[in-house]
Design a protein that fits this description.
Helix content is about 65%, strand content about 0%. By secondary structure, the protein is mainly α. A hairpin with a 7-residue loop joins strand 2 and strand 3. Helix 17 runs antiparallel to helix 18.
Length: about 425
């Protein structure tokens, strides 16, 4: 999967510059670094030339260059996230500049029709125009492969896979991804191949569950991405690998440690600023893994503190307005962690937990989410019992037991019944 092509061995495009140094000078060489980094920068074409070859090969392998030649000033602006400056720096009318301007501009500001840009690129690269439009939601159907080859054909197959997944046709999606990987590898587009391996491994996990083969596939995809600068993609894959290990923890608790290692690896790749949702998800998953680990010695209690801190951090990303479901779930996890936390601030933790359970109850409608509502009631009742508010705890736990029984959650209803028996016994001793 490594980048083996050299600038001298690159395949020239059919598109040429009639006014360049010598009739028919190739405008661009292959493979191109398309589909490796996110839109819009990741779909721009790099012009041919000895001054641009090193950058093209670096980007194709998923690595950012140490330096950008002057001729690629527009591309540099785009990769730095300044699309407007990139457009201003595109001052040519050759097919590359026309296509790159098309990618960078919103549809309402484009001066050219897609068909004209597609024709200028030629038959083997023209499909890129429709791949971009499909990725941006401008087309509802993915493009056909047509005359596309190499990494361009890989992107067409990837678009067809995305369409199949959206249509709930996982078999077709897997087939298209297989063809995409094969095309990318043949073209020497190692960064794109690594991305496609990651997508394939995650799809297989969704279809098959966390089997040994799926874990191996996720691990192989992670290894392929590790040589790239695709930090967010790498973190997402580590998150998926950790989740797969965590699903296996019921059969072997050691999977929890493997999961935690993957979540920590993800957190080393992203921050709350660079990828807030990935960061928050990794924090929550790490916390749940830590809280599920058995506590056999005093030092294990440190994990509870780390878990609580991580859940608090995740709540700076998840809010009731932006992520209502994730916010409620994280609040519930934090409240439960506070109830069980060994701390010198025991009463303060319990009071905070009761408040957080109350916030969850306000958003978990018993009609639409009866189990979620019942679990929040059970947690609140447990916290009230620990605080010594036994009468209130009895009322809340009674409601929780009834809710679980109505939902047919027998095991959880029985667990709450056990808590009620303990509270009743304590109330008897108190009187």
């Amino acid at each position: 999967m490594g980048e083996t092509a050299t600038p001298s061995a690159a395949t020239p495009s059919a598109a040429t510059d009639p006014d360049g140094p010598g009739a028919g000078t190739a405008l661009f060489e292959r493979p191109q670094p398309v589909g490796v980094f996110p839109l819009p920068a990741g779909f721009l074409l790099i012009p041919a030339g000895p001054d641009t070859a090193r950058v093209r090969h670096a980007l194709t392998a998923g690595r950012l260059p140490d330096a950008w030649p002057k001729r690629l000033r527009a591309i540099e602006f785009a990769y730095r996230g300044d699309a407007r400056a990139a457009v201003r720096a595109l001052d040519g009318d050759d097919p590359i500049n026309r296509y790159n301007r098309f990618v960078l501009l919103p549809p309402s500001e484009r001066a050219e029709e897609p068909a004209a840009v597609r024709a200028a690129l030629g038959p083997d690269l023209g499909a890129l125009v429709d791949v971009v439009r499909f990725a941006l939601g401008e087309l509802t159907e993915p493009p056909a492969r047509g005359a596309a080859t190499g990494e361009i054909a890989a992107l067409v197959h990837a678009a067809q896979a995305a369409h199949a997944m959206a249509a709930d046709q996982p078999g077709d999606a897997a087939s298209s991804l297989g063809q995409a990987i094969a095309e990318a590898e043949r073209a020497g587009a190692s960064g794109l191949a690594a991305q496609l391996l990651s997508t394939t491994a995650d799809l297989r996990r969704a279809l098959e569950g966390p089997t040994d083969a799926v874990l191996a596939g996720l691990g192989a995809a992670a290894a392929a991405l590790d040589g790239t600068d695709l930090a967010i993609a790498r973190a997402e894959l580590r998150l998926a690998l950790g989740s797969a290990h965590q699903e296996r923890a019921g059969e072997n608790p050691e999977h929890l440690r493997a999961a935690a290692e993957q979540y920590l690896a993800a957190l080393r790749l992203v921050t709350v600023d660079t990828a807030p949702e990935v960061f928050a998800s990794a924090q929550v998953n790490l916390a749940t893994a830590y809280l599920a680990m058995p506590m056999s010695q005093a030092s294990d209690q440190l994990r509870v503190g780390v878990a609580i801190a991580g859940l608090r951090t995740a709540l700076t990303v998840y809010t009731p307005r932006t992520h209502p479901r994730h916010w409620a779930s994280t609040q519930l996890n934090l409240a439960n962690a506070l109830v069980g936390a060994p701390s010198g601030h025991r009463r303060g933790n319990l009071v905070e937990a009761v408040g957080r359970f109350t916030q969850v109850l306000a958003v978990r409608d018993p009609r639409t989410d009866p189990l979620g509502h019942a679990r929040a009631l059970a947690g609140q009742g447990n916290a009230l019992a620990h605080l010594g508010a036994l009468d209130k705890a009895t009322g809340v736990l009674t409601r929780a037991r009834a809710a679980f029984e109505r939902a047919g959650a027998t095991d959880e209803a029985n667990a709450v019944r056990g808590l009620l028996d303990e509270v009743t016994e304590r109330r008897g001793h108190r009187t």
